[in-house]
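Technical note accompanying the year-one report. For the benefit of new consortium partners, we illustrate the data format agreed upon in the data management plan: each record pairs a sequence with a structure-token string. No post-processing was applied to the example shown here.
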Amino acid sequence: MRTKPKYLIDDDNRLFVADNKKRLNVNGSFSIDEGNRLIHYLNEPREWQAKYQFPGKLIFTGNWKFDANYDLELELTQDNSDWQASILTLKGEIVSCESDKLVFQIRSVDKNSSNRLRLLKLTGTWAANEANQIYFSVTKKESPDVLTLQGLWQLNKNQQVIYTFQKAGRKRKDKVSSTVIFSGFWQITSGNQLTYILSGGTDSKFDFKAQIETPNLYPKEGVIKYRIGIGIREPLPEKQKIISLYGVWKLSRKLGLGFDMDYADGRVETVIFCAEVNFDENNQVVFSLRNELGEKLGMSVIFTHRFLKQLDAEFFLRLKSRRDELGADAGITVPF
């Protein structure tokens, strides 16, 4: 019975096949098809293909994952396949995180010793797990493969989620750092959750478990702070970090209270809140924030009379008139 060949990839991303103690380089290029299968297109003469009985392309199926160095691995399963079970490791780096894709760049060397760059695109959905870690769910006919970014994500100056990788270089002792940016915008829909929706019109979003750090907000400061833990399932205060969202408060009798956030390049997205309005004991106007379903968010925006008048004089006068009708000591609630 003929032994099934074993495929492997070297540090230069060249494909080899080992059979009967022989090792043969199969020259070609890698790609990923619509079914997220690894494809290797042969770049060998027809005579060579006929001699070694190779088709024009090889199709590999298995389970995708990251190794400890964030190189891309495909764990081949033996089942009724034409190869031995093994792991194919593609050495490279993540260069882009689109709303429905993970783009991985590899550098390969062909038989003429020329360097080639290839972009491999896995399709799927980005999300966050219970530990607030970012992961990519690879779309497959069976169950999806989950590729998790184990480290800490951060916000850049444009309020976008970024992830920085530390990878071993060619000499192993060297460390190479690279950063990918997730383009999107923030939404606040729950009192204990902070959501980052990726741009592109897909289902990709990060639902982060979070705790409001500043329940009493002041519009002049223009910041909403959350306390969030990354990489931990339990809320341990010493392992949490503060996430600050910066913006400008806007008042609209049609849309409610809005928080305009600037994401650079002229792109501004608004976080919309419903609210109830009343006066506190200091005669300040307090907007108790709610989501679209009317659920409390645990945050209040506190306006002084002067600032609210500057923001919307008509709305301020309507509130003041209502206050005067009920008396100085009476609290009022105005659906907003």
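Partners are asked to follow this layout when depositing records. The first strand starts at residue 6 and ends at 9.
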